[in-house]
Amino acid sequence: MSGPHHVPLPGSSRTPLSNVREIGPVEPTEEVGFTVVLRRRADLPRNLVEGPETVSQAELAARFGADPDDVEQVRAAFETAGVRVVDVHPGSRRLSAAGPAAEVNALFSTELTLVSNEPLVGDGPFEHRSRSGELRVPASVDGIIVAVLGLDSRQQARPQMRVHPAGVAHVAYNPPDLGPVYEFPAGTDGTGRIAAIVELGGGFVQSDLDTYFGGLGIRPPSVTAVGVDGAKNGGGTDPTGSDGEVLLDIEVLGALAPGAQQFVYFAPNTDQGFLDAVSTAVHATPTPVV
């Protein structure tokens, strides 16, 4: 499907998935949304990469974000291909776009296929878009586009927690017990600070948090759920899966720094979801410190 005026996108090659059932090509009219990352207008200097100098969000966007000319060059190429630009965030150099699968396939010289796969999270089978090989982009944006995420919607992460059978663990520790082991600063509770947590699935309910912190004799922290790319707080009740990971993150942070405001960013478990969640959190106002 490669056009005469397309060039390879470095780093975009993917090997075909194994042990999947191919359902067929994605319907030509199906809407496909994706995220494009653009190059910086200037490289980050050493004093910013290694510290201690810092810059404001506005200065970061103006000095090191996406160049407006690059944004318009990409917009023009996409519109010519029948793909629309939905949103632009110059500071994080992200451009959100969407279009029919047929036009997206042609734009990137690829073929999106629907497959059934064993899931990393949840019960199977899991259906998602897949692609293989390298992407190619219009020559007019060669070097401007750094990455294209979201065309392939396979899952990226799985819960890493392990649940012991009842009676196996003879000794248990809570976060306040372990804080001194990790030299967490004494006499601090995070008041006035904002912390961001990224979750690729799962959810929480406030009553579970109230019960947990009540058992520790600690006031529950302020926790706000933020949806990214259509995801939201699942508010589930599975402590052995993704919900358990979410609760564990909130509870450990809240037990050590109950005065900090927590913003929990829920995103799809895809490469696009992960990038968009981290970028949204990093560039939020007010900005999290952790």
Determine the number of helices (DSSP H or I, runs of at least 4 residues): 8
Name the quaternary structure: single chain
Q: Using DSSP, what is the number of strands?
A: 12
Shape from CA axes? globular
Question: Helical residue percent?
Answer: 25-40%
Instruction: Give the N-to-C terminal Cα separation.
Output: 44 Å
Low-confidence stretches: none
The overall average pLDDT, rounded, is 92
The whole-angstrom Rg is 22 Å
Main structural class: alpha+beta
Q: How would a textbook summarize the main sheet?
A: 4 strands, antiparallel
Q: What string gives the helices and strands in order?
A: EEEHHHEEHEEEEHEHEHEH
Percentage of residues in DSSP E strands: 15-25%
Strands in their spatial order, largest beta sheet: 4-5-3-9
Task: Please give a structural write-up.
By secondary structure, this protein is of the alpha+beta class. 26% of the residues lie in helices and 22% in strands. It contains eight helices and twelve strands. It has helices spanning 46-49, 57-64, 68-80, 101-108, 175-178, 206-216, 242-256, 271-282; strands spanning 6-8, 21-25, 31-38, 84-89, 94-100, 113-117, 126-130, 136-138, 145-149, 194-199, 223-227, 261-266. The strands form four sheets. Strands 4-5-3-9 form a four-stranded antiparallel β-sheet, sandwiched between helices. A three-stranded antiparallel β-sheet has the order 2-6-7, with no helix packed on it. α6 packs across α7 (242-256). The N and C termini lie far apart (44 Å). The mean pLDDT is 92.
